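To: structure desk
From: M.T.
Subject: fold request, one chain
Message: Could you run this one when you get a chance? Sequence is below, nothing fancy, just the single chain.
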Amino acid sequence: MLSYAVNSKVTVDRSSEEQHAIVKAAITQGVMRLTRLARQITTYRLRAASDGEHRLLIEQPRFAGWSLATPDPTHVEFSADAYRIPVTLTGSKQNNVVVTMERPLEETIRLLDLADDRLGVLVASNELEPSVKKALGELASRRQALGRQNAELDKLKEQRRQLVDDEKRLRDNLAAVGRDTAIYKQTLDKLGETEATIANLSTAIEKTAAEIETAKEQLQAFVSALIL
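Reply: Done. Structure tokens follow.
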């Protein structure tokens, strides 16, 4: 908060804040268009040091792209770089003047490129219409399911990689021992089990990869069909 004296008769305390609110959200062909309203709010707290009537002008800087929302612009003088707001103080009671400037901000988001944390913030927002929140919630659920499938695929591939390494080690061991020894038979049996497990994992990997591709296609179709 900034305090200063206009003159010996009037003092001013000034504070500022900025707010951002989503005022509109539309989705079509996989793209969401958000309209946010940025607000710069400046509060002037005016107090006269004595009774009587005091007239003054508050000069609020003007910025390109911003418009004056409060006070009523029809009661405000405009200069090239400032709003000149007339104020009349009566007596020594504090008088508050709130000056609000607004600017719309447009944002275009491709839904399939939306980061998970940003998507979560939007789903939790109370500024979006229920239909948009529901669609984004469904998108989040589908992406989470796809993430679990990808994690499972990575797990299967890692298991197979480790077994392929084991297979090579077992073959090296077989080459180093005699065929008529007990350890040769044990190693050969272990190699057979390893190869069978590798084959099963390869089948599971192929199936999971196909399911992921189907899920991706379904996600793309879901997003493309959204019209809100």
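Reply (cont.): Confidence is low (pLDDT under 50) at residues 1-6. Let me know if you need anything else for the meeting.
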